[in-house]
Specification:
- Helix 3 runs antiparallel to helix 4 and helix 3 packs antiparallel against helix 8.
- Helix content is 78%, strand content 0%.
- The chain has a single domain, classed as MFS general substrate transporter like domains (Growth Hormone, Chain: A).
- It has twelve helices and no strands.
- By secondary structure, the chain is mainly α.
Length: 277
Amino acid sequence: MQATSNTGNVIRLAAAQALSMTTMNVNIINTALVGSLLSPVPWLATLGLSLQFVTSMLTTLPASLLMVRFGRRPVFMGGVMIAAISAFTQGIAILISNFYLFCAASMALGIAHGCAGFYRYAAADSAEESQKPKAISYVLTGGLLAAFMGPEIARNTVDFVPGHLYAGCFFSVAAVQLVSLGFLSGVKIPKPTLTGSGGRPIGTFFTMPVFVVGAISAAIGYAMMSYMMTATPLQVVNVAKLGTSANATIIQWHVVAMFAPAFFTGNLISRFGAPVI
């Protein structure tokens, strides 16, 4: 029974991961392009996506604290609702040509992405110790499915609303996020036990070399990814004039390369250890 429950959790979380990443992919493909159309000055075109990345990172700590207090599922479902409302608001902002509303909605969407980043850890919580790396990898494979779903949505809904380029993309992913609620409602993970004492002060981690190296590596990697994903759509569509379909295809294969290794990294980590991999 426990094994069945664990498998169900992993499947549901992988589906939620796929839908969350679908929304993220559509945003990466289109947000800077919308900014270039709505922004009062060209250099503000990437503001919405930049705010989204920053908010996503800033959300991780408060989201984890809320999960300790209320459990993972309520926070996950709250994040999905924020994603749906934010994406819908992005679409409305395009309809009324309001750049600042679009940026605010993009920033709010970062909260949802920050919450969704914990799906993999929720899967690990429900797995046996020896199966944790594989559980994480299986959830991350949802991102591979999103690599095909997101660009297809972006490609086929870009002019869905006549006279308002890209609005249909955001309305579509708002609906996609509502589907995610069905998967997350079935996730069953025990709420962490609160203790009156124990645990290390946060400052302690900054004295640990393994934490410092990991944090610096993650920061550099995330910065490079953010730069490339923000600049690429503008270069492809506005400068090279290759069109929105080519832009979607380029982002698609970038995301495939990000998540395809999840099929085997779990086994590699189990065999060689996380530091080596």
